[in-house]
Amino acid sequence: MKIFSAAQIREADAFTIAHEPISSTHLMERAAGQCAAWLEDHYSPSHPVYIFCGKGNNGGDGLVIARLMLGHGYDVHTCILQHSSKASPDHEHQLRTLQQLHPTGIYTIGDVSDFPELPPNAIIIDAIFGTGMSRPVDGWVAGIIHLINDQRHKHPIIAIDMPSGLMADESSVHNPVVQAHTTLSFEFYKLAFLLPENAPYAGDVHILPIGLHPDYITQTPARYHLSDREMMRTIYRPRDPFAHKGTYGHALLIAGSYGKMGAAVLSARACLRAGVGLLTCHVPQCGTQIMQISEPAAMCITDEDAHYSTHFHKGISSAGYKAIGIGPGIDKQPGTAKSLEMLMDAWQRPMVIDADALNLLSVYPYLLYKVPKGSLLTPHPKEFERLFGKTANDIARLELLSKKAVELQLYILLKGRYTAIACPDGAVYFNHTGNPGMATGGSGDVLTGILTGLLAQEYTPKAAMLLGVWLHGYAGDLAAAQLSQEAMTASDIISSLGNAFREGI
Ligand SMILES: NC(=O)C1=CN([C@@H]2O[C@H](COP(=O)(O)OP(=O)(O)OC[C@H]3O[C@@H](n4cnc5c(N)ncnc54)[C@H](OP(=O)(O)O)[C@@H]3O)[C@@H](O)[C@H]2O)[C@H](O)CC1
Ligand SMILES: [K+]
């Protein structure tokens, strides 16, 4: 699914009006009608409805919702904020219609002292500002947003299109923003919903289709995308009935050190469950028995070093591997860094780089420029910061992520609630599968195994990244559904991978 900017959404709006064709008033009726239907499905007329409207088209939506719900027997109070002397033409039109049909129950708000006393049971609809927010809210309007937020423990707050104060494509950090429980947003996710710094604002997001013109949506390129099941169906390749284990590649996993062999075992198991044909694990001497006993399907190469792997580059180009994954639990020894450098000099094909291998790249930054083009880097926010530096906000971090992916010609993901995957062509994909139960030790090692397994099966690096992150999150969701977010562990993500392949694609 494409994620359009506020400017593109305005274009989509205008394109629909011109090409469907439909009047802007009717498009607003359609959008607000969807909201009213959702609200009526979720709240009975026993709930007094307080709708806060701005003077733009978001406020216009609020006025239509007020009229529709009044018509269906709800007790509606419409509060119009006088933040501007001018209202949009559609707002004016909708206000006249509402005044004619239901002249009572319309109030103006010009200061915080006008904020109404809310009866118990009331619901709050936030239709103050939508995608037209052009600057941070200040003064008494900010005061109204704070007063709305003060109600959030007593009354449900439902935002229309966007929580007011939130900017669709810019950072809103430190700005006053409505903290909604639910956001009913039109047609597309907005970039702002996907950024961790905005976690307190949108609540549960429901995307309501409002029939924006399909030609605009297919023809208009977007920089940001949200991964979805359809996308995974186009990526996934069912297995060939005449296959043998050579068909699905031979992966090498360089993982584990003294005290961290668990990371290697988890990664190896996930790699096998991702469907790889053959797996070899390169481990230090202390890890060979552990690996061989824990995972009989994996072959082992034992390093010359007792506790750390420092000689894994040897013979790499002639070994016939289809993919290499490196990082889980390898530690940051200078010998490991040296071997990584020689490995990258010799290999020069996309590989998966995670955990301590990423930390080695931040300790020896020149190594970053030796990473083979098309490789997959999987940092969590702290590793990302160590690699590329701090940023002022999440939008700046997203820009930096994308810039580095283009500059280094790598696929770099940034782990989070919506993991962002930046591609060498500048596109960024957000992934929505997964849950907070996956914030547990070993979860990242599992992802490295999955990605390495998919890469070995000759999925393209982009396909491996998108599908691997999706399956990892989906398996995590299945594990959480069965065991709870608290009790699930990284091993449970691996156990659920089979059902993720079956049900998640
Ligand atoms: N595109 C669609 O899919 C449809 C969207 N609809 C709804 O329309 C809004 C967007 O409406 P728009 O009129 O463009 O913008 P807003 O209503 O969000 O905001 C404009 C008003 O807000 C004022 N404003 C902006 N920033 C501030 C601020 N910081 N402080 C105070 N006031 C602010 C602005 O005033 P100006 O002084 O800047 O002119 C405007 O008064 C979209 O979100 C949907 O809800 C359609 O209904 C259907 C299709
Ligand atoms: K709003």
TrEMBL record:
Q: Which GO terms describe its biological process?
A: metabolite repair; nicotinamide nucleotide metabolic process
What remark does the entry make about the cofactor? Binds 1 potassium ion per subunit.
Where (6S)-NADPHX is bound, by residue? 57-61, 130-136, 161, 263, 329, 380, 445
Which positions are tagged coiled coil?
Answer: none
Q: Please tell me where AMP binds in this chain.
A: 415-419, 444
> Could you tell me which residue ranges the YjeF C-terminal domain spans?
228-504
Per UniProt, the keywords (alphabetical) are:
ATP-binding, Isomerase, Lyase, Metal-binding, Multifunctional enzyme, NAD, NADP, Nucleotide-binding, Potassium
Q: Which InterPro entries match?
A: Carbohydrate_kinase_pred_CS, CARKD, Nnr, Ribokinase-like, YjeF_N_dom, YjeF_N_dom_sf
What reaction gets catalysed by this protein? (6R)-NADHX = (6S)-NADHX; (6S)-NADHX + ADP = AMP + phosphate + NADH + H(+); (6S)-NADPHX + ADP = AMP + phosphate + NADPH + H(+); (6R)-NADPHX = (6S)-NADPHX
Q: What is its EC number?
A: 4.2.1.136, 5.1.99.6
Molecular functions (GO terms):
ADP-dependent NAD(P)H-hydrate dehydratase activity; ATP binding; metal ion binding; NAD(P)HX epimerase activity
- The entry marks the following residues as binding K(+), namely 58, 126, 164
Domain of life per record: Bacteria
Q: Which Pfam families match?
A: Carb_kinase, YjeF_N
Asked if the keyword NAD belongs to this entry, the reply reads: yes
Functionally, this protein is described as follows: Bifunctional enzyme that catalyzes the epimerization of the S- and R-forms of NAD(P)HX and the dehydration of the S-form of NAD(P)HX at the expense of ADP, which is converted to AMP. This allows the repair of both epimers of NAD(P)HX, a damaged form of NAD(P)H that is a result of enzymatic or heat-dependent hydration.
Query: What name does UniProt use for this protein?
Result: Bifunctional NAD(P)H-hydrate repair enzyme
| Taxonomic lineage | Bacteria, Pseudomonadati, Bacteroidota, Chitinophagia, Chitinophagales
